[in-house]
Structure formats: C-alpha cells, structure tokens
Amino acid sequence: MVPGKARKKGYEVGIIAVVHTFGRDLKFNPHVHVLVTEGALDKNKVWKEVGFIPYEYLRRGWQKVLLDWLRQKYPESIKVKNLINKLYRRYQKGFYVYAERRMESARGAARYIGRYLARPAIAEYRILDYDGERVRFWYEDHQTHERKEEELGVLEFIGRLTYHIPKKHFKMVRRYGLYRRDLNKLAQKIVGLWNWVNRKVKAIKRPQRSKPKSWKERLQEAFGKNPLKCPGCGREMELWKIWHYKYGTIWDWEKDGVNYIEKEKEEKQQRGRPTGPVSGMGVSPGGPGGTALQLSLSGMWV
Fold it and tell me: What Cα–Cα distance (Å) separates residue 226 from each residue in 72, 211, 219, 233, 242?
C-alpha cells in the first residue's frame, strides 16, 4: 500500500502498542512491540486487505516520528539538536524495525502481547546464585543466541529491576485506529452480530434430520415386502396381535391398544387440545356397539 494513496483513501488500520523498557541483560533498552492489522477500512467502511508492508518506509517513518517528537519536546536544546543530527547520520536507513513475524490467530496475538504485559524483567529460574552480596544470572544474547552469564552486586541488581517499574498511571499499552477504546464496544457488537448470523447460516446449510422411519418402512427396505399386505386380497391389514412361539403374546390390541388410546386422550386433555382420533388410529362402523377402533401400525413408531 502506497502511504500517499492510503491517506487519500482515508484508510484506518488497527494498532496495539506495548512499551518495553528492558533487554535480556536487564539494561535499559526501550522499544515498542506493535500489532498492526494487515488491512484497513476505507472511508466507505469497506475492508481492504494489505499483502505488502514497505519495511524501508516503516523504518524511516519510525525514525522521523520519534526524532520530530524530541525536537518538539526540547526546541531550545542544542544538545538534543546535535543528538538528532547524529542519529540521522548514523542510521541513514532508519531505526531498526523487525516486522516479519505474522500472527495466524487472535489467540496467538493475545499470547504474544500478554507475554510482555505480565512478565517481570527477569524470571526467577534465570538467577543462578545469590550469596547475600552478589547475584549471578544468565541470559541469551540477542545477536549470537548464545547463553551468557553476568554477576552484579545486589544493590545494582535491584536497581536494574526497579528502573523498569513504570510511573503511576503510565499506560504501557495504547490502542489506535480500529482498536481504540471508543470503538471497542461497537466492535464487540459487530463481532457478536457476525457470530449470530454465522450460526444462523450454518443452521440453514446443515442437513435436516430425516423423519424416523416406522417399523413397516424399515422392513420394506430390508426385505422388499410390506409386512401388513394381505397375500390374498392385497389390501393392508390391521395389526391385532403379536405372538411368539416361545414367549407367547407380546402385544394384544384388546389389552395394549386400548390403554394406548386412553393414554393419548389424557395427554391431549392435559395440553388443552380437543380429544379425537389419535394419529395412527381411526373410527369405522362395525362391532357390537356399532363402532370399532382400528389401529394402523403404519402410524406407530417402534
């Protein structure tokens, strides 16, 4: 993204910056860890992805912003002016910027930033020895990646630690652009709405559960025959009794079927629904009272 073009388009990125004051040897080494979105919102609130970051421009831009701030902070200081000129001559390509690490997830980004927020200047396991007067510790050299040891007097060691304690109310973390505080609540609402829509879309795309098949339909699929079809007339029969040669009567209409109907009627009355023919059942003329109840297993589930 060309910087001039970005300003004309009104692009707004998201930035989280964390101030870090110590190096691995506990010496004063001020630097800033920054998370930057690989994209931005334009003036029409349309997201634009960025696949390339000009590191050379970033280094020189960081150098100019920092040195211009020093010039504005100490406009009358000759010493500061000489320092600024010296730094421009020494670092002609700009200040050091390491910008090649990429975060693949929000969790990884939070873990990266959290490591610098909740970490002391030195971990206890790096302290090798303490005899009451001197402290010996180790650290990994940033350039050579070799393990080095250093020994300091206890007061000097404590001084290096306390030097990195920030002043009261000093903000070690700052957010800019899309991550600034006034947009935080709005961003949470947008993310919540997006998650809700995403769940609804997945529910629509999810295949609907098929209706459970009756025992008659499963037997038809397995054996290719309707178990209730009369071999003589071809009409579908009504189940009256299930009998097994070993166990005897398993299901009987006069005993189990009537109880089934009465139970269904009671449940419907409790729900405030009108009683009437139950699903899978019908009323037909016939029988001693002029009316006979028939139960069709095609409407019952096993």
Answer: 93, 19, 7, 13, 16
Ordered alpha helix ranges (H), 74-153 = 78-90, 106-117
Quickly list H helices, 206-252. Answer: 215-223
Name the 3-class secondary structure at 23.
coil
User: What's the longest Cα–Cα distance across the chain?
Assistant: 121
For residue 221, what are the contacts with CB-CB under 8 A and spacing of at least 6? 213
Residue type, 114: G
pLDDT in tens, 132-168: 999 999 998 877 889 999 999 999 999 988 888 888 8
Region class of 110: left (phi > 0), else alpha (psi between -120 and 50), else beta: alpha
Amino acid at 77: S
- Structural tokens at position 112: 């990266």
pTM of the predicted structure, to 2 decimals:
0.53
Q: Kindly report, residue by residue over 27-85, the tens digit of the pLDDT.
A: 888 888 888 888 888 888 788 887 677 788 888 998 999 999 999 999 999 999 999 99
Cα-Cα-Cα-Cα dihedral sign, residues 21, 24, 28, 32: negative
Q: Among 17, 107, 117, which Cα is nearest to 62's?
A: 17
Contacts of 88 (CB under 8 A, 6+ apart): 63, 67
Q: What gap in Å lies between CA 60 and CA 47, rounded to an integer?
A: 27
Is residue 216 a contact partner of residue 295, using CB atoms and an 8 Å limit?
Answer: no
**Residue 220 and residue 16: Cα distance in Å, rounded?**
65
